[in-house]
Write a structure and sequence with these properties.
Blueprint: E1 4-7, H1 10-28, E2 33-34, H2 36-39, H3 46-56, E3 59-64, H4 86-96, E4 101-106, E5 130-132, H5 137-148, E6 162-167, E7 173-178, E8 184-187
Parallel strand pairs: 1-2, 1-3, 3-4, 4-5
Antiparallel strand pairs: 6-7, 7-8
Helix pairs in contact: 1-5
Domain TIR: 4-127
Region (Disordered): 173-194
Keywords: Receptor
Amino acid sequence: MRRVFLSYRIKDSVHATAAISSLLVRHYGPDNVFRDRDSLPLGAVYPRRIRRELERSDVVLAVIGPSWLTIKNKNGVRCLDDERDWVRTELRMAFEREMPVVPILLDDTPLPAPSQLPSDIALVGLSMYWQVRHRTFESDVRGLIENLEGGTRDTPAERGPSRKMINTASSGSTIFANQGDGAMNIDQRGGGPR
């Protein structure tokens, strides 16, 4: 059974990370998924618990949304450039322990290039990643779990683009269908995917 540690920026992806965590907990159980907001009891000493949970985990999922790379602290410095930044610390500790770090890219967020990252976490930019999209969220997270378990399910990027079909039976409504096993979105007004 996997022990999963979720690393994320609150200002970038707190809600997506909570939803991902919920599905992971459903599969692995609450004792095998660590997300600070869910897993730390009141009064816990944050640095000690983070280190302990990283030591207990066997994979780190780094949830990366559109502003993960550029968020700045109160002094106007990019958070990742601060050696004491917790996201950077979590990832550095994982790489030092030679743990797998899986970037989880939200929607169209690109994988950061190693040159965009501090040298101690530049491997994030070379790591095999997984994409989680809003429109196919549950299917994408199920695929992530299958891959974490050693399955061979295609990555979301390998499934191909969405197909657009015209439904002539109902006055030309537009139907968007993901190739593969993604969710189908039907908009009876013809205005595109929901």
